Amino acid sequence: MSRTLSTALVTGASAGLGRELVRQLVRDRGMTVYATARRLDRLDELMAEMPEGKVKVLDGDISDPGFRARLWGWAEAESGGIDLLVNNAGVGHYADFGEQDPAEVRRIVEVNVMAVFDLTQRAIQAMRGRGRGEIVEVSSVLGTFGIPYSAAYVASKHAVDGLVKSVRHELRGSGVRLWALRPGRFASEFRTSSLGGRGSDHAKPGEPAEAIAQGLIRGLGGRRAFVTPTLQAALTVAVPHWLPGPFEAFMAWLGPKRFMREVGGAISSKSSAA
User: Fold this and answer.
1) Is residue 34 flagged as an active site residue?
2) What pTM was computed for the model?
């Protein structure tokens, strides 16, 4: 299947994994990529890096249903038919869930869940009619277990994984493949934006975005429903699955304190005393 892919739509393409993925799809696969994000200046910079005509951009807020409809219509019309959709855009917000601003929760759900569901539906309808296509949801290792102070984000990734587990069976025999990438922590602006100016990031640096993008590209044309792009990500998923008792003991004993240190200042003193 991967040899037939020539056009892609990538969301969240202005930084981190999305930006690197656009580069690799163009340079390594020769694809034409339709890239979207909120920051037009960064999209224009990315377009200027690539061979002329290989990257086309449309800026907008993926949480807006009207923009999503316009985005899909634009990409389909410009390309003559999108072969690959990568739902990469995502947001987070570190907080004690009991105290979290409902507006932050709604934004996480709108970007990480509703936008993914919406664009996936649109892609399925178009691709199923053509009898071919591939849809990749960028999930997370956190789609398989939970950590404190990221409840809304973790729940959103569980929702994405549930979508993949279910819909992939509906697509059997259609020529359309739906799967999810499960990266671990990687170098990006995600953690800084999730802090929202309330603290500082004390976590260890993540894996390079280049390695995560390479893992996604290796997964194209395969058959697996879930792909962990690196050994570190695979081990992160395996430990709570195969050693649930020790993992739960670790989380109860050290987990909350460790994660609070990593996002120093972002969690209220009320939460830390709980």
Assistant:
1) no
2) 0.90
